[in-house]
Amino acid sequence: MNRFEAAERALRTAAPHQLPDAVSAVLTDRYAAKSVDFLLVDYGLTVLQPVTALPHSAEPVPVHNSPAGRAFGTQRAVVEEVDGEGVVTVHCPVTVRGDRLGVLSVALPADTCTPDRLAELADVAQVLGHEVIVAERDTDLYLRARRRDRLTLAAEMQWQLLPGRSYARPEYELGAHLEPAYAIFGDNFDWSATEDRLMLYVTNGMGEGIEAALLTNLAINALRNARRAGLSIADQAALADQAVYAHYRGASYLSVLMVDFDLATGRARVVDAGSPRMWRLRRGGAAQPVSFEAQLPLGMFEETDYVAEDFRVEPGDRLVFVSDGVYEAASPSGERYGERALARAIAATQLLSAAEVPREVLRQLAGHRGRPAPHDDALVVCLDWHGR
């Protein structure tokens, strides 16, 4: 059994809560590692939290000015030299199908850090990521390790509802982020892919706190139920509309922008039922808003009919979806963020990957807002379209 096979077996046979110990033991034994640290990115995408015995006993590592953070941001292994000790630390991104979970940091003798060894460590990090996703069904260790602060109950409900924060396939890349990360309540996103299609929902629920989270949970699960029954997006919207109206009788409702992409052609069907908006950035051009026929939010009236309209995306297009917590955000003087500022923020992301775009747009929004926490949810989803 070679080194990588031994590491893979150790991770696949470890108890769910023992993955950090298992990867540390096998890397020490088979790779002569001096130390091993497994770090998970927090909900706010600001720090990498060491996965240790709870409560946390190790300091978090900043994402934006550290070697481990550079590995997380670039999604490439970063080799950090330790002066005078003959040791290097290799930081490998832990990522599952484009969903960036964290970093595996391994200290090795410098003379063993060959390209083949780096490739093996990258593979070990990938296996670790897959095992963490599976292990989260049976332990809270990794969900707790992601928390820099306590989540509100509404935020707990919302994060558990999400599919992930990034996803990648040859045809496209997705990235998304929500703020305030530890107190989000109504905004949400969802996606689902098959061999030939990608369905994407961006939602903006009304209300605050638990009531907003409950409304969004009902609507998203109604949409998923209809999608999994094989219905078109127009029928999905109609079924979810009925579910929300039956419960709230029009007192609460939810805005949603739904897009069903054909991966082979780039053709899409769109239902615009409320306030989330879409912008398109093409190579060499400016970011432009894309308008669709506005239809009623889900649950506002009984038995609303929805109509899907056509849209087409071209290879190289970047689509950015935002909730009203972005474009309605006000500065301390009361000035709305507005389309001009949003267009500049999107255009400034051209060199970033789709996974990094939402955080950057929200960072620029925070500068305009001038206060540490928004009064309303703010959601950004980015889709980079490559096509087939």
In short:
With 388 residues, the chain is α+β, with helices and mostly antiparallel strands.
List the helices and strands and how they pair.
Elements lengths: L2 H11 L5 H13 L3 E7 L5 E4 L10 E2 L4 H8 L3 E5 L4 E10 L2 E11 L5 H21 L5 H5 L7 H9 L4 E4 L2 E8 L7 E7 L3 E9 L3 H20 L4 H16 L5 E9 L4 E7 L3 E5 L6 E3 L18 E4 L5 E5 L1 H4 L10 H10 L9 H13 L8 E8 L3
Walkthrough of the structure:
The chain has eleven helices and 17 strands. The protein is α+β, with helices and mostly antiparallel strands. The strands form three sheets. Strands 3-2-1-6-5-4 form a six-stranded antiparallel sheet. A six-stranded antiparallel sheet has the order 7-8-17-16-13-14. A hairpin with a 6-residue loop joins β13 and β14. α1 runs antiparallel to α2 and α7 packs antiparallel against α8. It is globular. The mean pLDDT is 93.
Mean of all residue-level pLDDT scores:
93
What's the helical proportion of residues? 25-40%
Secondary-structure element pattern, one letter each: HHEEEHEEEHHHEEEEHHEEEEEEHHHE
Q: Roughly how many Å is the radius of gyration?
A: 22 Å
Overall number of strands: 17
**3D shape:** globular
Residue windows where pLDDT falls under 50 for at least 5 positions:
none
Major sheet attributes: 6 strands, antiparallel
How many angstroms separate the termini?
Answer: 39 Å
Output the strand order for the largest sheet. 3-2-1-6-5-4
Number of helices: 11
Indicate the proportion of strand residues: 25-35%
SSE-based structural type: alpha+beta
